[in-house]
Design goal:
Blueprint lengths: L5 H12 L13 H11 L4 E5 L5 H8 L4 E6 L2 H13 L6 E5 L2 H5 L6 E7 L7 H14 E11 L5 H7 L2 E4 L2 E3 L5 E3 L3 H8 L3 E11 L4 E10 L1
Parallel strand pairs: 1-2, 1-4, 2-3, 4-5
Antiparallel strand pairs: 5-10, 6-7, 7-8, 9-10
Length: 222
């Protein structure tokens, strides 16, 4: 998987290479995300976060009472920050983070976790890999377990032309940042996840500082 995502790794290594260590107890400023993580942590002892970045989301789960969290990300700089937080705040018995991609999910046993987090990851992967992530999360999370899914907005044709996205295939692009974009409409999202998850709730999150709206799904594993 890693070889297919060299530009993605380069982009995120640069972003997290400029990021400082942080206090993991600090609340996330977006209330909808805080609410979603409270839902994930309620009556759920463990979670796996694929595309965890520097770990801010899973630390919030620990602070909300979760017993164990596991993060995976292909960006080494992000994982190094997360590891430093684990060491500094003595999370060793409650957390693990590893650098890697889809191959790391393949190594995890069935029904190993009670919940999962997928934040802005499914639509930044090659579609075949995203579908494999969904199948793995379905396998790894216990039946009726919770999945919190967050996606980028659907990008209109006018926006794609403005940003000069390179089309690879139908609704699949490469951005000028080097990131992939699987441009999923709400209807496409529902079609892809329906065999595996039940939608409990859908909401939109307005990131006003970036003038962008994300979509968040509260899901239950089938």
């Amino acid at each position: 998987m890693i070889n297919k995502y060299k530009d993605t790794i380069k982009y995120w290594d640069n972003v997290f290479g400029q990021t400082q260590e942080y206090n993991p107890a600090e609340k996330i400023q977006i209330q909808e995300i805080e609410n979603g993580l409270s839902w994930i942590a309620d009556n759920s002892k463990s979670t796996i976060d694929f595309g965890c970045g520097n770990g801010k989301v899973i630390w919030r789960c620990l602070n909300k009472g979760m017993e164990y969290v596991h993060g995976i990300d292909i960006c080494n700089n992000a994982i190094e920050i997360a590891k430093s937080v684990i060491k500094k705040f003595k999370y060793e018995d409650r957390a693990e983070v590893i650098c890697g991609g889809l191959e790391k999910l393949n190594e995890i046993k069935d029904n190993s976790y009670e919940s999962a987090i997928l934040f802005n990851i499914l639509d930044n992967l090659i579609p075949e890999d995203s579908k494999e992530v969904i199948r793995n999360i379905h396998r790894i999370v216990k039946p009726n377990g919770k999945i919190l899914l967050k996606l980028n907005p659907y990008i209109t044709r006018e926006q794609r032309e403005e940003y000069k996205f390179i089309k690879i295939s139908d609704e699949f692009y490469k951005e000028n940042t080097g990131l992939y974009l699987w441009n999923l409409s709400n209807e496409m999202v529902e079609k892809v996840i329906d065999p595996f998850f039940i939608i409990e709730k859908y909401e939109e999150i307005n990131f006003k500082q970036f003038n962008i709206i994300n979509r968040m799904y509260y899901l239950r594993n089938r």
